[in-house]
Specification:
Helix content is 39%, strand content 19%. It is α/β, with parallel strands linked by helices and 402 residues long. The structure holds adenosine monophosphate.
Length: 402
């Protein structure tokens, strides 16, 4: 089964054609500046990356070019689009409606529309992607995989905020979490690596430019650090994560900021970038720290501490922990940050093996010391594969399998 996985942003579109049984990405590409001047499509070929500048006034044109990159006679990877069995869309917000993959029909589209209020930038882009695929490939089944879905298993005590309950009842203000597909994939993989024990208590740390931590109980999300929006939780590249909520109104009053400006400050100019003024990219901060920048060192310590606090919190919520997983850009690649995060936790039975930690690899692996009671794993996340598998399962359940 070949699934086209699409991740539509407001002005970008990432896509991968995945052969599910062979666990192989046949083509990976992206369209940038969709709807703007200077748009281009870029995709991987055996001879390297290929970039073509093309006007893309809308998502339909972007998807048309993405499809052309799949079956063009010059460097296509399939003979014809007939070989594509289904399309899977990554969608940010599924609200309380979706706890798993959904076959896209009119009622699903209506619900995604209804949720625009909760994801004003992302859900409209996803809808444009769905509409465009419906026009360009009307006979292909489409499925939606939601970033929030995995966290729908959280108990109410972990998702209701201590504010007037009417805000939950009337406006659905609650914790939704994010990165669900990634947490689901790495937690399933961790359970396999721990010998298949589905009752294993696991903490998954997705640390990329955005970051979130999830407590996994019985294979399900029990609590997670992102909240009503992806702004909450740990310190991130350019997002502040949890801060005293009174700071928000204080800054708005003192600086005369609108809610949009304050949102922008917290989402784009805070976190590693805000503290250092250097970058939101940990690699650059690490370089600056090595050259003696005090503020870069402070930001690294703050980042590690913010992750440690959540690990501590979730050890309490899970009454212990069997495995901790590191994934995404920082979690998979920064041995330095992992060293900081796991320093001095030996009294909790958590011990890193510095040599194993320093090895660079694309493989899922253990990096804990032999005598560590808790296993520490690095598991490269595979959100697109997970989406492709979900879509294959959806097709089988709907009798659409080839
Ligand atoms: P992601 O959002 O998962 O693509 O992660 C992106 C982030 O991963 C970048 O902003 C970097 O901060 C971080 N990253 C990637 N590679 C490394 C590395 N080798 N060392 C430190 N940080 C890295």
């Amino acid at each position: 089964v070949k699934v086209l996985v699409i991740n539509s942003g407001s002005s970008s579109l990432k896509y991968q054609l995945i052969d599910v049984e062979r666990h192989e990405v046949l083509r990976s590409g992206l369209c940038e500046k969709v709807g703007f001047f200077g748009s281009f499509i870029r995709y991987d070929t055996p001879a390297g990356e290929k970039t073509i500048e093309m006007p893309m006034p809308n998502h339909q044109e972007a998807i048309r070019l993405a499809l052309e990159s799949l079956d063009n006679p010059e460097d296509g990877v399939i003979a014809s689009l007939d070989e594509v069995d289904a399309v899977g869309h990554r969608i940010v917000h599924g609200g309380e409606y979706f706890s798993e993959v959904a076959y896209v029909d009119e009622s699903v589209i209506e619900k995604i529309e209804e949720l625009i209020e909760l994801a004003p930038l992302h859900n409209p882009a996803a809808l444009m992607g769905i509409e465009a695929c419906g026009i360009l490939m009307p006979d292909k089944p489409q499925g939606a995989v939601f970033d929030t879905a995995f966290h729908q298993s959280m108990p109410a005590k972990n998702y209701i905020y201590p504010i007037l309950i009417d805000f939950y009842k009337e406006q659905k203000i609650r914790k939704y979490g994010a990165h669900g597909t990634s947490h689901r994939y790495v937690s399933q993989r961790a359970i396999e690596m721990l010998g298949g024990d589905t009752s294993a208590r696991i903490i998954t740390c997705h640390l990329g430019n955005g970051g979130s931590i999830t407590a996994i109980k019985d294979g399900k999300s029990y609590d997670t650090s992102m909240g009503f929006t992806p702004l909450d939780g740990v310190m991130m590249g350019s997002r502040c994560g949890s801060i005293d909520p009174a700071i928000v109104t204080f800054i708005m009053d003192h600086e005369g900021l609108s809610s949009d400006e304050m949102n922008n400050l917290m989402n784009r100019r805070s976190g590693l970038l805000g503290v250092t003024g250097i970058s939101n990219d940990l690699r650059e901060i690490d370089n600056a720290a090595q050259e003696g920048s005090e503020v870069a060192r402070l930001a690294i310590d703050m980042y590690a501490q913010s992750i440690r606090k959540y690990i501590g919190q979730y050890i309490v919520e899970l009454n212990g922990v069997d495995g901790i997983v590191m994934t995404a850009g920082i979690g998979e690649n920064s041995a330095m940050m992992r060293e900081h995060i796991f320093a001095e936790l030996d009294n909790l039975g958590i011990k890193l093996d510095s040599e194993k930690n320093a090895v660079r690899s694309r493989e899922a692996r253990f990096i804990n010391a032999e005598d560590s009671a808790v296993k520490i794993m690095v598991i490269p996340t595979q959100e697109e594969y997970m989406i492709a598998y979900d879509i294959k399962r959806m097709c089988e359940e709907h009798g659409l399998a080839q």
